[in-house]
Each structure stands twice: as structure tokens, then as C-alpha cells.
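Quick review question:
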């Protein structure tokens, strides 16, 4: 599948504003600042399709992108950012959990975790939820360029080992938007999901 023609469709504050719940959707989830929006830009070869930022909490809405008609990628708001006012945080979390629970076209979850801080609380909750819901997960250990090759490799092996406890269909890869490490594996998995 060619991801380059991907277009921005809409930003939704809650799931009622999303496009028709048909076709296939893949959602990108993870802590604030994990690199979700950057990964979307890397995969689509577009510099600024999804907005990125040094400041956590950049993506505050459910952003919808279309690869082809009926094949969508979703940039979800990040979680776990302490400095967001509690009322706003609750509103995002509400939108996020509603999306995950109700969206029937959701056929795969890409869970991004900074390779230096994998498996934080909410990451684990999401993995449990996905396993129970029978949603396959691609875990990306992002910013892999921040570690030396040896450390990178051992973190990957540990992360794969740790994923066993969740059961479920979980694939774990390293990823870097900076040098495109892991990009072919991501493209293969997304193509597989979107072509079902
Ligand atoms: P929210 O929208 O706040 O949830 O964040 P996000 O997960 O979308 O993160 P975003 O893509 O905006 O990236 C956050 C910061 O990490 C930015 O400063 C990026 O430039 C940086 N970043 C993202 N991916 C990589 C990577 O692979 N390597 C390095 N070194 N930095 C990265
Ligand atoms: Mg973002």
C-alpha cells in the first residue's frame, strides 16, 4: 500500500464527529510526546500532515487521515501528560476511551512508547484492553535513535518478553522518525491490516 497520498480529513472532539464508521481504521495511541504524530508523518512521507511539537499535549483532538477511501489512520490525543488542566484531561480521556470502545471500524492499534520508558501504566491498560477486545496491536518503541544499537536490541528483546503476559496479538518493533529505522516493518503491518 502506498501511504504517500494520505490526506487529512477532519479533527473530532468526540466520536460523534467522526466519519461514517465503515471501512478499516488504524489508530495511533500512546503517551504524550511518544512520537505518534511524527510517526504518521514518517509513514506518509509528509513533513507536516500531523502536527508535532516539543510540548507534550499537542494533539488534543481525534485527527482523521485517509489513505484511500474506506482506509483511515487516526492520530489520537496522547495520555499521561501531567500539566494539562484536569478538566481537559478528563475530556480527552473520555474521547479516547469512547473511541476505543465503540469504533467498529477499528481493526488495529499502533501503540507508541518511547524506547527509554516503555510500559507505563496507561500503556499496559491499553494492551490489556486490546487483548480483551481482540484488537491486534503493533507496539513501536519510538525514538530508537536515542539508544546505541546494543541497548536498543536488548530493550527490544525485553519488551517482547514482557508482552507475553498480555497474551493477544502483539507485535513489537523499534522505530525512529529521525532515521526511519523500522519503517518497512510498520508499512508491512499497516498494509496487512488495511487490506483486510
Ligand atoms: P502528543 O500529540 O502531545 O500526544 O505527542 P506525539 O506523540 O504526537 O509526539 P510528536 O510526534 O509531536 O513528537 C514529540 C517530540 O518528539 C517532537 O519534538 C519530535 O520531534 C520528537 N520525536 C518524535 N519522533 C522522534 C524520533 O524518532 N527520534 C527523535 N530523536 N525525536 C523524535
Ligand atoms: Mg501528536
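Suggested answer, residue by residue:
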Amino acid at each position: 500500500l502506498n501511504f504517500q497520498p494520505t490526506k487529512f480529513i477532519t479533527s473530532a472532539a468526540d466520536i460523534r464527529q467522526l466519519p461514517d464508521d465503515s471501512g478499516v481504521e488504524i489508530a495511533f495511541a500512546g503517551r504524550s510526546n511518544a512520537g505518534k504524530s511524527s510517526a504518521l508523518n514518517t509513514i506518509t512521507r509528509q513533513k507536516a500532515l500531523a502536527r508535532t511539537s516539543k510540548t507534550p499535549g499537542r494533539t488534543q483532538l481525534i485527527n482523521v487521515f485517509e489513505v484511500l477511501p474506506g482506509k483511515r489512520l487516526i492520530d489520537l490525543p496522547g495520555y499521561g501528560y501531567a500539566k494539562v488542566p484536569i478538566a481537559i484531561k478528563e475530556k480527552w480521556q473520555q474521547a479516547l476511551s469512547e473511541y476505543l470502545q465503540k469504533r467498529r471500524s477499528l481493526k488495529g492499534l499502533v501503540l507508541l512508547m518511547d524506547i527509554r520508558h516503555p510500559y507505563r501504566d496507561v500503556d499496559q491498560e491499553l494492551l490489556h484492553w486490546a487483548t480483551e477486545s481482540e484488537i491486534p496491536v503493533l507496539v513501536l518503541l519510538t525514538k530508537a535513535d536515542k539508544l546505541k544499537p546494543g541497548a536498543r536490541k536488548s530493550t527490544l528483546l525485553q519488551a517482547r518478553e514482557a508482552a507475553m503476559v498480555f497474551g493477544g496479538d502483539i507485535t513489537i518493533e523499534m522505530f525512529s522518525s529521525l532515521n526511519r529505522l523500522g519503517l518497512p516493518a510498520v508499512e508491512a503491518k499497516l498494509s496487512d491490516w488495511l487490506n483486510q
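Why it works: The helical segments are 36-44, 86-102, 121-133, 149-163, 183-194. The chain has a mean pLDDT of 92.
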